[in-house]
Amino acid sequence: MSTTPPILPISLQESIVSDNLNCTILLSFLMGLYTMVYAGTMYLYRMSSCIQIVAVNADRAAVSQKATNSNHYVVLPTISMLYLLSMSTFIIQWYTLDWAVVINGDTRLSMFLSTLAGGPAWTFVVTDVLFYSVIIVSDGLLVSYISVGNNIAYHPIKIQIWRCYHVWGQSLRVTSLPVVFLLAEFGLFVAGLITSLHVGSVTNPTDAALSGNIQSAQIFVSFGTTIITTCMIAYKIHSSSRLTAPTSKRTFKHIMNVLIGSAAGYSLVILVYAVILVVPASESIQSSLSNVVFYMQIVVTAVGGMAPTIVVGRIALSTSSHSACPPSVNRISDLQFHGERVTNGTLSAWADHSVSAMIRNEGTHRDEEKNIE
């Protein structure tokens, strides 16, 4: 068991024990919010998935139903996985608090030493796996819904790199950079796991520096992956919106808002966390930055799962709102149309009909404006 230096202020001992308790309370509050968000998102998504998409022909109806079913196999399990990972972290946090205060908390000093140890050795490995799994899965869960007018065109929610690959016309050359970042992120995750198995509770300054460097590197790479793919997709959407009709630009604006909203808050949180880890003072228990690291880990765990879940809920809520008014003309977004691949030089019948319907609807809209004038 690790030993404490002979002279440690009582105020420092009380501060560390208090921060451990406050972190658990904060995580309890955030997980309560997360539970409500998760339950609400699941309900909204189930409701939006039950919407009967009105199709002009049987071919399009079959394609729409197939896309809707594929969403269930991707969206719901991934959202549930994020929630279970965050909830498991919450359970481990409660266990370590109980271990430090109830089981080994005979005196203030023993409580302090137990809190400083951080729990049994296995909790370090489990906590690291859960924490970085939330980050990796959060990087993967991004929304690729496209809605235009009164019709909702469903696309499966893809992992981040696959979404960028799809939007950029399935170009491996363009998406090679985010793929490299993703592989680097996974490699650092493995390195951090090996370090946790070898080091355990970090008491040696050299081991602490190594562990902190690996953690900060992975967080920075995760931040870079999110920013690069978001910028690439945002640029592609912006370029496509310049070639569309004015009535379709509202759709691209909605996509941009969802995209940026899903990345901005999460990216800011992990950036702050990565910067704090780089500061050498964060490795000393006598520095207030070491306490900030604990709080930031709690925030990253909750925000990492909650942010993409909120985005899915926003899209599902938008779908339910659109379903309130029966569609008169079926339309398809230009982003979806240009994203379809041509097989043997032909387009699917439903895509061809949708584009024709969109053109007819634009002509009708212009005629109505002339009559009003």
From TrEMBL:
Keywords from the named record: Membrane, Transmembrane, Transmembrane helix
Nucleotidyltransferase is among the record's keywords: no
Name this polypeptide is given: G-protein coupled receptors family 1 profile domain-containing protein
Domain of life: Eukaryota
Spans through the membrane: 25-45, 73-95, 129-153, 174-197, 217-237, 258-280, 292-313
